[in-house]
Structure formats: C-alpha cells, structure tokens
Amino acid sequence: MPPSHPASAPAPGPQAAQRQEPLPFLATALSYTGASGPGSASSGGSGTGPGTGTGTGSGIGSFSINGNGVAGTHAANAMARPPGQAASPLSMALAPDVDDLDADGDVNANGPQSPADAAGMNRRPGKRPAARGTAFYPRKRANTACQVCRARKTKCDNKKPACSYCVSVGATCIQSPVDLSSFDPASLKILDRIDELERLLRHAVPLPGAADAAAPLSALAPAPGSGLSSQHRLPPLSRSRAFDSAGGGIHGQSSSVSSLSGLRNPDDELDLTSLLPQRVDHILQWPAFQNSGTHHHSPASFRAPPDAIATPPSGSASLAGLIDMDSHRIYRLLDNFFLHIHCKNPILDEVLARRMVLNAFLDGIDWSPASCLALIICALGCIATPFGPSGETKLGTQTYNDSQIFFQAAQKRIGILLVRSDIVGAQCLFLSGIYLMMVFQPVYAWRFFSQALAACQHFPFLARAQNLNTSLDAMEMGRQDTQEQAVYWSAWKSERELRQELDLPDFDILHSGSTLYPPFFPAPPVAPAESPDGPDTETQRARAAWLFYLAEISLRRLTSRLSREALDLRQRYASDSMLIDMLLDMMPEYEAQIREWSDSLPADLSIHTPVEEDGICRSVLRGRMINLFEQIYWPFVMASISAHSARRPVKPAVAEFAKRGLETHMHQVHVNKPGFHHRHHGSMFMIRACTRSALVLLAAAKAGCAMPTDWEDSVYKTVGMLAYWEDEDRDLIHWRSTLERELALARHE
Q1: Compositional bias (Pro residues) at which positions (predicted)?
Q2: Contact yes or no for 459/487 (Cβ under 8 A)
C-alpha cells in the first residue's frame, strides 16, 4: 500500500459524502461454501431501517471473512432466513449492487413497505381488497432528496423551502414539486422511463456532422449548480470515460476530459487538464514533452492494422512431433496452465478439463472443440511460468516457438466453434485472447474477447437472470452455470479493459436493462465434501482462484463507481476550483473505502505483507489497488503541475494530495518491480501503468513540483523494464528513448 500519510491531512468538509459500503459483493461472495465452508451472517446489526438513518440496520448487515466483519447489503437477506437455512451462492450473487440503490439508500426488502402493505398481508381470505387510493400505493418514493443531496448521494431531510444541508452551505435547494405518493405503479414506471430518456438526451454524444440535428437539444436547461447559462453549457464528455447506468462499466475511449477552456472563469486559479489518468500516448502530447523530438502516436494510431502474428521459424518442431510427446510433458503443461494461468481466470472445471485434454491426446487430435481447447491449453502451458523472470519464454526461444505451433493449430479449428453455442467455444475464444495478450498482440486479443462475449449471450443462465418473474432464491446453480458465469464475466471485463486502453469503439446498447453488463456476481462452485485427509489439490487451487477472481471484480466495481462519481462532478461544475474543492471533501471517504477493501481480503490474498513475498495473484491485486489510488489523486497532481508551470500558488490541501499522488506513482514502480520480467496476461497493462507513472514524475519535476526522494530511481527502473520487452512491442522503443532523454534534461535543469 502507499506509504502512510501524516495525520494532518485535510479534514472532511461539510460537503463530505456520506459513507458508502464499497464491498457488499466481496463480503458475501467470499463467504460461499466453496471457499471456507458455509458462510455465516452475523446476527448483530444495530441501527434503523432502510432510509431512516445511518448504521447497519435491516438494510445493511455484515458478514465475516476470516474473522473480520465486513458490511454488505446481503446480510439482511441472510438474517431474514429461518435458522439453519443457508443462503444460496446465487441469491448472494444476484443481489442488488450498491451502485443500483436509490439516492436515499433504500433497498427493496421482502417485508411490507407501507401500512397498506402490512394490512394487505394480514387480510383474511375473501375480504374485499382495499380501494385504489393514495394510501394503497407504497410510499417508498414519496420523499425524494433534493438535487444537491442526490448528487452527493447523502440523506436529505426534505425541509421546505430548503433542506438543512443546502441552508448550511448556502446552496440553491431544488426539490421536486410533484408528490409521487399519489401515483400508481404504472404511472411511476412511465415517469422513470421519461427520466431515463431525458438523461440519455442530456448525455448523448453528437455524431460527426450531426450538429444541425442536435440543435433542438440546446433548449434543454443546464444542470442545476453548474453555473452555466443557456449559451454556455458544459459539453458532453466525448473523449471521456462513460459508464453503464447499470453498474459502472467503462466504455469510453479515453480518460481525458473535454477541454473547458472556453467555459472556465478567467479568475479561476486552477487549470485541471484531465480528471482521470490518461494513456501514455496522450501524456506524450503534454507541453512538457513537446520539445523532446520523440515519436508521438496520434489517438488514431491504435486503430492502424496490427502486425501479423509471427509464424514459428522453419527449423521449429512440427505439430506432429509435439502431439507425440510423452505423458510426463502433457502433465507438465497442464500443471503450468492451472498453476499460473487458470488461477487468475477460473473458467474451467480443472478435473474435467484435465480429463478432456488427456483424452484428446490419447484418441488423437481431430477437429473437435475438445481438441481445439486442448491445443490452446498446451500453448498457454508452454509460456506460463512461476511469478518472476520469464527468460526461458523470450521471443525466439524453443519454448516460445512450441507455444506458437500449438496456438496456430488451435486457430485452424476455432472457426468451427463460431457456429456452435456450447460453452467450449466461448472458453476457446477467451483463452485465445489470453494467449495473444501474453505475446503482446492486444488488438487481436480484443477481437477474441469480443467474440467470446458474443458467444456467451445465449447462455441459459443469462435468460434466467433477466426473467423478473423468477425468484432469485429459487434459481439453483449447477456446475455448468458456474462455468458459464465465469467465462462471461472474464470476457466482459477483459474486453472493457482492453478497449479503453486501445481507444477502440464501443458497441453500446443504451437500454439500461441489457444483459451486456453482468447484473450479478459470479457464483463460485460448490466445494465437494471434504475427505478425512482434507481437501484435495484441485479443490484448494479452485478455492484460491475464486478468492482472487471475486476480489478483483469487487475492486473493479469500486473503481468504476469512483470514476463515475468524479465524472458526474465534472459535468456539474465548470469551475476547476469548485471541482477541486468538492473532491477535497470526498478524499478522506475515498481513501477509507479503498483501505476497507484491502482490509477485507482473506489472509491468502492479504496485501499487508512485504512486496517481495507476493505471488502473481497478490501482485495483481496490489497493482490494481495502486492504480485506484493513482486515480483518486490524479486531479490534484494535474492541478499542481499546472499551477507550478504557470507560477501560481497551490493550496496546502491540494499540495498535500498532490504529494501523495507523486508518492503513489513511485510506489507503482516499486510494487510492480518483482513482475517486470514476468510474462502474463496483464503484462501490457503493467508496462503502460509504470510508463505513465514515470512520465508523470518527469513532468512534475520539470514543472518545479516538490518531488519525493529517489524519484529518479523509479524512472531508471522503468527504462530497464521497457528495454527488456521492447523486442515484442515496438512502441516501447519510443517510450524508453523518451524517458532517457527527459530524465537527462531534468537532471541538468
């Protein structure tokens, strides 16, 4: 974790966001029977009911992970069950995400929501139903928070004419004049759909050449509190990250925020060039690097045709020779795959997969899906190594060439899978993407991840999950459903991450009810009954893999939610100073949520250990947490660099968080150093994250910011990492030369 910071950090202001529970899914998912026996919900839980106050109450309960209580929304459901009736993994997985809650924190419980509901439950059979009146309908939405409190996601007391919070800060309190309690459910549904249409119109990104068609939208009023007139409205974030309304999935091209120079107040003392971390090719276009004479990539350069996948040299072994290998080598390749690849994406049943591969080689490789899967597993098993330097799999080695032979043989069979609907096809497509990521072919990998996601769209569990008439508790998960959920989630998150990094198009579906965004947490497999000698090796590996898998997904959701909140603020505040002030108030809460996530990890994945003791799974989680710290500190680092470049003063609070941000960039390089020479699925993301951090450190030093001690060492280490991999990615040559040149210039300034 980043170094601890002094206790004199800025205290949360009056606008600090109310505490949100960031880990409901991780808390419940890690309590499944396949991880550590039947999960037990704590019977404690004080506080008031939903929507009436704070505390854990009936809306928020707690689960225990390795003895540590973690708050979560599923605990209420667990405590509501009769004694001895355990919650099914699917019921926990399909429970509502914390992002899908109403602004006032209400959750649909199973009990009555109004006095009329309670009366209806106690009504005798045959009694005339209550009349259709105002009291008949649930009053759940009668009290709606004002727009200021809704934007901050805090409780509103709905006082008239202005709520207490707006009075205390001097804000304009805008409350809905409509009493929704008198509307029937159908009317409320219609109003919801109208609100959704208005939201889509407000945030629509205009197509090129469609300015005339979009002209009528200028009649829409600006967002309250934005400080913009009808002639000066904040433009849509056409180059920003956008998020699914269903849960925060990223599907934008870039993290840079649209230029607001024409809308900023001339007296604004801050100039925030970007709100979220940018890609390396964008950072290389900063003014600090414009005079370096380095080759720069335009944003469209990633859209150029990628290099063809290299073919093995003529002297390499043939496929027939590799297939005719002894059983010991087959077992070794399988062990490599399940130990070093499958542990991060557990999409297969290890016992069944091993049997399928062995049968394929014993019966002879044919054109069946099983043979295709066996060849891909062997290709990955060839280049998979323990965490640490992977010199034996460098480009041109015999091991690397063997993996290419296996992979190309699999690709000759994979076209047949595109006209099948079984799970093996989706697994082959996804694992092909994993292989291409490991050999630094991200564009081709994205194609396979997209195809894998498309192959999952007709899985039976998706249809059942979208059937609103089906009780979640009544849905039972089998082994097949578990594998379908796993490959669906893996393909979904891999495609999202890669598309964002490569600036590739999003095939967006505007309907918020689309099954594209997974509306559930993947359900772990049910562990078999333990033998007297304890769990077998395969069960232990499956448990460890699923613990990592669920922890990574939960962190991704937290990252998406914090990103979306920051972009929502950007839309509301044209002034960079006002935006920074709002972010300053929220920073203590953001830091606390990230640390709560890290504290909730089980002992096997705990990152409260020395970096030198990390395995691949722990290293990946540590790196992703550092990425999230980098994200929340990014606006302050950008503000500090801009202010120092313009010789303007910096607020002490901004300077403090900018200092933490620069320390995080140093820490990014430090925590990833053990994996600098390790080939794995996320090598490309690690390389780009460290390169971004090194460039930010150089830009800050050139601007005159107060730099952390030994920051140059982090840049030197990044240069060495780029030199190691530059034979496999031509972009790394230009990045390395830029770092070397800029570091030399910075040392002489």
Answers
A1: 1-13
A2: no
Reported as a single tens digit per residue, the pLDDT across 437-467 is: 999 999 999 999 999 988 888 887 776 766 6
DSSP one-letter code for 699: H
- Tell me phi and psi for residue 41, to 5 degrees: -90, 145
Cβ contacts of 57 within 8 Å, gap of 6 or more: 45, 46, 47, 48, 49, 50
- What are the φ/ψ torsions at residue 377 (nearest 5 degrees)? -60, -40
Q: How many CB atoms lie within 10 A of CB 323?
A: 19
> Could you tell me the two tokens for 392?
């034996």
The H or E element containing residue 24 is: helix 24-29
Are 133 and 115 in contact by the 8 Å Cβ rule? The answer is no
Bridge-based pairing of strands 61-65 and 68-72 is: antiparallel
> Residue 33 pLDDT more than 70?
no
The answer to whether 376 and 428 have CB atoms below 8 angstroms apart is yes
Strand partners, 293: none
Asked whether the whole model's pTM tops 0.85, one would answer no
Instruction: Give Cα separations from 99 to 112, 151, 294, 312 (angstroms).
Output: 23, 13, 43, 48
pLDDT confidence tier of residue 158, bands split at 50, 70 and 90: confident
State whether the Cα torsion 145-149-154-159 is positive or negative.
negative
The model's pLDDT over 671-684, given as tens digits with 9 standing for 90+, comes to: 999 999 999 888 99
**C-alpha closest to that of 604 among 555, 559, 542:** 542
Mean pLDDT of the region 7-31? 44
Q: Sign of torsion, CA 12 17 18 22?
A: negative
Q: Give the position of tokens 């205290």.
A: 11
Which two tokens mark 366? 């044919």
Q: How many helices (H) and strands (E) does the chain have?
A: 25, 2
Q: Which residues pair with 61 in a beta bridge?
A: 72
**Alpha carbons 323 and 337: distance in angstroms, whole number:** 17
Angle (deg, nearest 10), helices 423-438 and 683-703? 40
The residue behind tokens 């409205």 is: 233
- Residue 211's contacts (CB-CB under 8 Å, 6 or more residues apart) are none
Q: What are phi and psi of 71, to 5 degrees?
A: -70, 150
Residue 452 tokens read as 């894998």
φ, ψ at 55 (rounded to 5°):
105, -175
Give the pair of three-digit tokens for residue 336.
């490599």
Give me 281's structure tokens.
């090719």
Question: Is the Cβ–Cβ distance between 380 and 337 less than 8 Å?
Answer: yes
**Residue 322 confidence class, pLDDT cut points 50, 70, 90:** confident
Q: Among 91, 31, 23, which Cα is nearest to 65's? A: 31
Q: Which helix (H) or strand (E) holds 72?
A: strand 68-72
What is the percentage of the chain residues whose pLDDT exceeds 70? 60
Which residue type sits at 302?
F
Structure tokens at 26: 């991780």
Half-sphere exposure (CA, 13 Å, Cβ side) for 328?
Answer: 0
Cα 479 from Cα 461, distance rounded (Å):
12
CA dihedral 111, 115, 117, 120 (to 10 degrees): 120
365, 375 in Cβ contact below 8 A? Answer: yes
Q: Tokens 């994205």 correspond to what residue?
A: 446
